[in-house]
Automatic annotation (TrEMBL), chain A:
<dbReference type="GO" id="GO:0000139">
    <property type="term" value="C:Golgi membrane"/>
</dbReference>
<dbReference type="Pfam" id="PF04733">
    <property type="entry name" value="Coatomer_E"/>
</dbReference>
<keyword id="KW-0333">Golgi apparatus</keyword>
<keyword id="KW-0653">Protein transport</keyword>
<keyword id="KW-0813">Transport</keyword>
<dbReference type="GO" id="GO:0030126">
    <property type="term" value="C:COPI vesicle coat"/>
</dbReference>
<protein>
    <recommendedName>
        <fullName>Coatomer subunit epsilon</fullName>
    </recommendedName>
</protein>
<dbReference type="InterPro" id="IPR006822">
    <property type="entry name" value="Coatomer_esu"/>
</dbReference>
<dbReference type="GO" id="GO:0005198">
    <property type="term" value="F:structural molecule activity"/>
</dbReference>
Automatic annotation (TrEMBL), chain B:
<feature type="repeat" description="WD">
    <location>
        <begin position="200"/>
        <end position="241"/>
    </location>
</feature>
<keyword id="KW-0472">Membrane</keyword>
<keyword id="KW-0968">Cytoplasmic vesicle</keyword>
<dbReference type="GO" id="GO:0005198">
    <property type="term" value="F:structural molecule activity"/>
</dbReference>
<keyword id="KW-0963">Cytoplasm</keyword>
<dbReference type="InterPro" id="IPR001680">
    <property type="entry name" value="WD40_rpt"/>
</dbReference>
<dbReference type="GO" id="GO:0030126">
    <property type="term" value="C:COPI vesicle coat"/>
</dbReference>
<keyword id="KW-0653">Protein transport</keyword>
<dbReference type="GO" id="GO:0006886">
    <property type="term" value="P:intracellular protein transport"/>
</dbReference>
């Protein structure tokens, strides 16, 4: 186990916990080794991506940058122009096939994320299943959860726990896993988010995590309070809005404002898609029954 | 052994504790008796009158007396207050070994080398008994603490117990003593006052010491045969019980401990030994290098011992008395005896939680030292010195409070110290390697981390952080980042107390308190002369701490002060407002109310909360020189002013704060010249000329006064002053004033009068007062001085002042804050005290072991697919995780080799859809077609348009959204209904639905309300929405199913009625139809108030249309319903009117005598016996012609369709 101080700890933490702006603002860390510097840049650019500043990332990373950064750029390109995603994916595949860079952990991570967006879990897992970094394992957990294979997710989680049980990603991934399997585990997820909220500054991600745990436990009133707090922090956060829609429905309040807000700011959000597909679905069903 | 105090001196032969005060007397071989304060560590006094060694010394238990006996054969009784030897008792014929006061009688017992023991009456100052029998030196003699017994030890190898019962009888009054004095001699030989009761033989060398047990009939003795013997006695005999062997040389002194069941002995072998009195085994030995021990003393009240040796003495205790405790929100966990106990501050309830130690374990200094508690997991870590430092981890079972006596099998481990650093993590210090092991609640090591400094103890420092202590500094170390967050040089820190908000920390050393921020930035340091014991933060950030004898406070800026004194040391656990909660040395919780005014005041001053300061000044009795000095020193003399009565101090403070008016008032009161002078100076500084003038007038300081008038241009007063000077015959003053006034004539006159004729002449002539000059010239005659040539004289006129009179304008900054505020009485003293937010620690987790997770359901569904993939996945299992995680290359090969992606699992919504036969759950699962088919089958619903939004809501409400990794797709999570703490994971419950029955009840109420207030459209909308929601509502019990069904019919009636009512309003031009609809409305099943309104309206409509008979009928029905008076009155009027003329103008299709239902679509009555057809869902009735249409009431179902009935509860399906 490394004994020296972990300079990137805060940066990484901020990134994982969704404090992207804080991560960017505090990224000036002196005396970093070259590897750490690349990792730092990756985290910073990934934060920018998370904030939606795709163009900035695309223009900042030039062709001379390290593979990891190129991979990050690829993600920015993929997310920024859905129209050109075919070309992005093909260059991604090209890189992955290249044996010299194909093993780059960040590249594999980005591949996993992109293929996950494509809902091609098979392809995603092809690159991520071997793990190697906490990020990759966490992504695996997420993919397996998405695939409704919590048994596999659990195995990945075990690996993470073995490596570092107290790592922020391990904790987060256990929260995801706990939420996915539900039942009594939800309380643990809640406590994990609770721990985060006591230890670190509140972020939308933590608040949403808590709120989701509350909703899963049927405690919609508390969830609403938490979500409104999150909305205060960021009025455009898609998950906050989506969860507010759900939460409002359950507490018997009108959800339409949040939904229209979400539709405006994030037309591609799952909830928006679900609602529109449900509308079609409804019409189809009416037709079929008639 | 915990040494509390040590002295260096000549050999100490005798020791005695003061029963109340922290004093000890030590008698020395050099003949000096020293009085020490062992708490402060100071020599208070010395008594030097004996010649040669003083071997025995003893304090009286209530009077300011002590007795001493020495090798000069003298027994001296001293008063330590007056520092005098009161008298000397003579009689012994050889060295005196010990002396002791009796606990109630005025007696002293002494043992001497003359082989006798003597009992003296120190009031009559006579020897009242001589106990003979020993045939060698008597080394020690002492009274029994309760009974009339004396025990003595002698070099004749015996211990003797003497009965002195008869002595007590004979000395009822002092007079007896005098009478008995004559008998002394006869008593000396074979007297009967004191008889030997037992002779204890067993030691085979001379016995040096023997003492009684404080309560039991036991004696312990120590002898030159190096043995300690324990003896027991009863009424008739005494016998040897056991021998304690171990000392390597003569045992010099031995006694029972006052509080514990132990024996303490010391010896010339330079050791003190502690023995278990029941098991009679040695527990501990303390050795010194060079010093032989000569004497022991036990404090009668508190847990202290003292031992004298060749080069001084030591005061010590055997065991730490601080109970280990940990605070958590409103509760305190602490260790007492064998138990972990729990104390709730708000209720002051104290209860036993779990036993933490098996009874009968050797127990010296192995009791818990520290305690750490994790509220969420309800786990306790107890550290003790056992096995050189170890910890025990207990999980407190739920609701076990106060029960079982069985010791839980705690998880144990060794380590310097152990503390919780997170909910389910604790850190254990490995001193040897300076490493910290982070463990989970299963006591498994999760992580190892080496510490940045050699650490000998760790403390909690916020989640995930540790405060590490070394000899001379502390650091805060973040275990995750492996970063030092803060560092501070400190003396050896003993205790660490965090403020409630974890922003500040107090580091307590033996004599120092250091307050630092959470990053260990030093805020202030306090030094105490005596030991600091404990502390806690109050809610305002004031640190309250205790020393051995005080409760004190420390403000954030380092100002400290005494709150109150203490008799015995206490350990503060929590401060809440004016109450200090603490544990005392017996492990009892106590609440002490203190007067917090002083430090709250100072804090308010410090924080510049002046409104608070003012309200405190007005409302409380704050005073005292100390407070005034403090205020002055802190630059708040104007505040101090408000506390002071004494005029002189008031004056000083007023001057200091520049408050002239107060100063004037005080100066007037005192009327002291010096004060006036100082007032004048200050007033001048401020430019307050009025007061300056006043002050000068008061001091009769005319020069200053005239100068003041000059510069302020007050010429009137100046001339007045001149007159005064004239009257007073003050020529100089007069001249000055004249000069200031520019009054030449006057000047000349003054000079003339003073006899300075030449000067007068010159003055007059220079200023052109020729007539006077001439007159003077004549008077002068020849002596006329010559005037200087070639100079033009000019009149010296005082300049006119820039500003005449008046005071200088002043900037009054402080005035606004204090004076202004203080004068406006009663204004806003209310200062918001922040409320103590109590930590809601939530419920305990019912942790299900991950291994035991139930995968049954999903697995069962997936079994088939899974079978053929087992092999492929085995590879991944083998992979586990390569230890070098950072080198992904190692795993690259594995990655490309065999990897088979598992098939996707079944989404929860699909499980829902498969499992459920309830339409709502199908809709939530997104299977709209199934839901619709169900509704069609169950309720005959065909028109789904009104249900669209509900379907969508159900579906959107069925998932929440979790952002996992950044930029990756969001994870939808199925929300399940009926969650409980004990739900097993991986077993899918039904979907949570956005509609529930209670919402409908709410809607029903508002529907009623809208109806009452006549908002029919609104009401109709509400009732319809209820009707539309019910098919998608799910309830749990059968009973609720019935309620739902009831609700359907209830709401249907309203919908029908309201629709007719609205229809009636549309058909204004058809009075007949209007009446009919109004009439039918009254036959809907409505709530009484609504029925009354319906009847009222029907009555009105019919009455207006002159259908009096029908109106009469409505009026009658209305009266039956107990209407309010206004309605009743109207009804009675209608009845009266109708009774006169019982006819109907128009014929209505309405026969109230014949029972009927109303067709939901055509609104015509369907009388009993007529054919009708109904809606399968809402049960509205229709005329047969409507069959096959969509029901106009509920707008959902097909009239007359076949349906199985409403299915809205899983209980119906089971």
């Amino acid at each position: 186990m490394a004994a020296g101080p972990d300079h990137l700890f805060n940066l990484r933490n901020n990134f994982y916990l969704g404090a992207y702006q804080t991560a960017i603002n505090n990224s000036e860390i002196p005396n970093l080794s070259p590897e750490d510097a690349v990792e730092r840049d990756c985290l910073v650019f990934r934060s920018y991506i998370a904030l939606g500043s795709y163009q900035l990332v695309i223009s900042e990373i030039d062709d001379a940058a390290a593979t990891s950064l190129q991979a990050v750029k690829l993600l920015a390109m993929y997310l920024s122009s859905p129209a050109n995603k075919e070309s992005t994916i093909s260059s991604l595949k090209e890189w992955l096939a290249d044996s010299t860079i194909g093993n780059n952990a960040i590249l594999r991570l980005i591949a996993g994320i992109i293929f996950m967006h494509e809902e091609d879990y098979n392809e995603a897992l092809k690159h991520t299943h071997a793990g190697g970094t906490m990020d990759l394992h966490a992504l695996n957990v997420q993919i397996f959860i998405k695939m409704n294979r919590s048994d596999y997710a659990e195995k990945q989680l075990r690996v993470m726990q073995q490596y570092d049980e107290d790592h922020t990603l391990t904790q987060l991934a256990s929260a995801w896993f706990n939420l996915a399997v539900g039942g009594s585990k939800i309380q643990e997820a809640y406590l994990i988010f609770q721990d985060f909220s006591e230890k670190y500054p509140m972020t939308c991600l933590i608040l949403n995590g808590k709120a989701v745990s509350c909703m899963q436990m049927g405690n919609f009133d508390e969830a609403e309070t938490l979500l409104l707090e999150a909305l205060n922090k960021d009025a455009k956060d898609p998950e906050t809005l989506a969860n507010l829609v759900v939460c409002s429905l359950h507490v018997g309040k009108s959800s339409s404002r949040y939904l229209s807000q979400l539709k405006l700011s994030h037309p591609g959000h799952v909830l928006v898609k679900r609602v529109s597909s449900a509308e079609d679905n409804f019409e189809r069903a009416v037709q079929s029954i008639a | 052994m915990l040494t509390k105090f040590e002295t260096k001196s000549n050999r100490v032969k005798g020791l005695t504790f003061h029963p109340k005060r922290p004093w000890i007397l030590a008698s020395l071989h050099s003949g000096v008796i020293q009085l020490w304060d062992y708490r402060m560590g100071t020599l208070i006094d010395r008594f030097d009158e004996h010649e040669g060694p003083v071997r025995g010394v003893h304090f009286h238990n209530s009077q300011p007396l002590f007795v001493s006996g020495g090798d000069d054969y003298k027994i001296k009784v001293w008063n330590y207050k007056t520092h005098r030897c009161l008298f000397t008792l003579l009689g012994h014929l050889d060295y005196i070994r010990t002396v002791q006061f009796h606990h109630e009688n005025p007696w002293i017992v002494s043992a001497s080398d003359d082989q006798t023991i003597r009992i003296w009456n120190w009031q009559s100052r006579t020897c009242i008994s001589v106990l003979t029998g020993h045939n060698h030196y008597v080394m020690c003699a002492s009274f029994h603490p309760k009974e009339d017994l004396v025990v003595s030890a002698s070099l004749d190898q015996t211990v003797r117990v003497w009965d002195i019962g008869s002595l007590r009888k004979k000395t009822v009054s002092p007079a007896d003593d005098l009478m008995r004095f004559t008998q002394m001699n006869s008593d000396l030989f074979g007297g009967v006052d004191a008889i030997v009761k037992y002779v204890l033989e067993g030691h085979d060398r001379g016995v040096n010491w023997a003492s009684f047990h404080p309560t039991l009939p036991l004696i312990v003795s120590g002898a030159d045969d190096r043995q300690v013997k324990l003896w027991r006695m009863n009424e008739t005999k005494a016998w040897e019980v056991d021998t304690l062997r171990g000392h390597m040389n003569n045992v010099s002194s031995v006694m029972f401990h006052a509080k514990q069941d132990i024996i303490v002995s010391n010896s010339e072998d330079k050791s003190i030994r502690v023995w278990d009195a029941t098991k009679r085994t040695g527990i501990q030995t303390f050795r010194r290098e060079h010093d032989r021990f000569w004497i022991l003393a036990v404090h009668p009240e508190i847990n202290l011992l003292a031992a004298g040796h060749d080069n001084g003495m030591i005061v010590f205790k055997l065991e730490r008395e601080r109970p280990a405790f940990a605070l958590s929100g409103d509760s305190l966990f602490y260790a007492k005896d064998r138990f972990l106990r729990y104390y709730e501050y708000s209720t002051q309830k104290d209860s036993q939680v779990i036993p933490i130690r098996r009874p009968g374990t050797p127990s010296l200094n192995q009791s818990p030292r520290t305690l750490s508690y994790s509220p969420t997991e309800n786990a306790v870590l107890i550290c003790s010195d056992l096995d050189g430092g170890s910890y025990e981890l207990y999980i407190i079972p739920k609701d076990s409070v106060g029960r079982s006596d069985v010791v839980q099998d705690a998880k144990r481990g060794t380590g310097g110290s152990a503390v919780f650093i997170a909910r389910n993590r604790f850190a254990v210090l490995e001193k040897s390697t300076s490493q910290v092991l982070v463990k989970n609640l299963k006591n498994e090591v999760v992580k190892k981390s080496s510490l940045p400094i050699p650490t000998d103890a760790i403390f909690y420092a916020g989640t995930g952080n540790l405060l590490c202590r070394s000899e001379d500094k502390v650091v805060i170390f973040d275990l995750q980042q492996r970063l030092v967050l803060g560092e501070l040089q400190t003396p050896f820190v003993r205790y660490v107390v965090w403020s409630n908000d974890m922003e500040s920390v107090a580091l307590l050393s033996k004599h120092t308190i250091i307050i630092a921020s959470k990053k260990l930035v030093l805020q202030c340091t306090l030094h105490e002369t005596i030991r600091v014991k404990s502390g806690a933060w109050d809610d305002n950030g004031v640190f309250i701490y205790t020393t051995l004898n005080h409760i004190k406070y420390c403000l954030p800026n380092g100002d400290s002060g005494i709150i109150r004194t203490l008799d015995v040391p206490i350990y503060i656990t929590k401060v809440s407002g004016n109450t200090i909660f603490c544990l005392d040395r017996d492990g009892k919780n106590r609440a002490i109310t203190i007067n917090a005014t002083e430090y709250v005041f100072k804090l308010a001053l410090l924080r510049k909360k002046y409104d608070h300061v003012m309200s405190m000044i007005r409302n409380s009795q704050l005073c005292g020189q100390a407070m005034i000095a403090y205020l002055q020193q802190k630059g708040f003399p104007e505040v101090a002013l408000h506390f002071v009565e004494d005029e002189r101090i008031r004056f000083n403070l007023a001057l200091e704060s520049g408050n002239i008016s107060v100063a004037v008032a005080s100066a007037t009161q005192i009327n002291d010249k010096d004060l006036w002078y100082r007032l004048g100076v200050e007033a001048l500084r401020q430019g307050n000329s009025g007061i300056v003038e006043f002050a000068y007038q008061q001091t009769k300081n005319f020069e200053r006064l005239s100068f003041l008038y000059l510069i302020t241009g007050n010429l009137d007063k100046l001339s007045k002053l001149m007159k005064i000077a004239e009257v007073k015959n003050n020529v100089m003053g007069q001249f000055h004033n004249a000069l200031y006034l520019g009054d030449v004539k006057e000047r000349v006159k003054i000079l003339e009068n003073a006899g300075h004729l030449p000067l007068a002449y010159i003055t007059a002539s220079v200023h052109g007062l020729n007539d006077i000059a001439e007159r003077l010239a004549t008077e002068l005659g020849d002596n006329v001085p010559s005037l200087p040539e070639g100079k033009t004289p000019s009149l010296l006129m005082p300049p006119s002042p820039v500003m005449c009179g008046g005071d200088w304008p002043l900037l009054r900054v402080m005035r606004g804050i204090f004076e202004g505020g203080l004068e406006s009485a009663g204004r806003g003293g209310a200062v918001d005290e922040e409320e103590d937010v109590e930590g809601d620690w939530g419920e305990e987790l019912d942790m299900v072991d991950v291994d035991g997770m139930e995968n049954r359901d999903i697995e069962a569904l997936l079994n088939e697919e899974e079978n053929d993939e087992e092999g492929g996945w085995g590879v991944l299992d083998d992979l586990e995780l390569p230890p070098e995680l950072d080198t992904p290359k190692a795993s690259a090969n594995a990655r490309t080799s065999v990897f088979v992606t598992p098939t996707q699992g079944m989404p929860v919504s699909q499980i829902w859809s498969q499992k459920s036969s309830l339409a709502a759950e199908q809709a939530a699962a997104g299977s709209f077609d199934t839901a619709m088919r169900l509704l069609h089958r169950q309720l005959g619903i065909k028109n789904f348009a009104p249900l669209k939004s509900m379907f969508l809501d159900l579906y959107s409400g069925s998932h929440s959204y979790l952002r996992a990794l950044s930029s990756s797709p969001v994870v939808p999570l199925a929300i399940e209904r009926g969650w409980s703490e004990s739900s097993s994971p991986n077993v899918r419950g039904p979907p949570a639905l956005v509609f529930d029955f209670s919402q409908l009840e709410e809607k029903l109420k508002s529907g009623y309300k809208a109806t009452t207030s006549g908002k029919f459209t609104e009401a109709l909308r509400l009732f319809l929405s209820i009707l539309h929601t019910i098919p998608l509502v799910v309830v749990e019990s059968r009973r609720e199913v019935d309620e739902v069904k009831e609700l359907v019919t209830l709401v249907k009636e309203y919908v029908l009625g309201l629709k007719m009512e609205l229809k009636r309003r549309e058909t204004k031009d058809d009075p007949v139809r209007q009446q009919e609809l109004a009439a039918y409305f009254t036959h809907c099943n409505l709530q009484a108030p609504h029925l009354r309104l319906a009847l009222l309206s029907a009555m009105g409509v019919c009455y207006k249309a002159k259908n009096l008979a029908t109106a009469y009928n409505f009026a009658k029905r209305l009266l039956e319903t107990n209407p309010v008076e206004s309605q009743a009155k109207m009804a009675r009027q209608v009845v009266q009117a109708a009774e006169r003329n019982m006819t109907d103008e128009t014929k209505l299709n309405y026969d109230f005598r014949n029972p009927f239902v109303i067709c939901g679509s055509t609104y015509v009555p369907i009388y009993r016996g007529q054919k009708d057809i109904s809606c399968p869902y809402c049960t509205a009735r229709f005329v047969p012609g409507q069959e096959g249409n969509i029901c106009t009431v509920c707008d959902l179902a097909v009239i007359g369709a076949d349906a199985s009935g409403l299915l809205c509860s899983p209980s119906q399906v089971r």
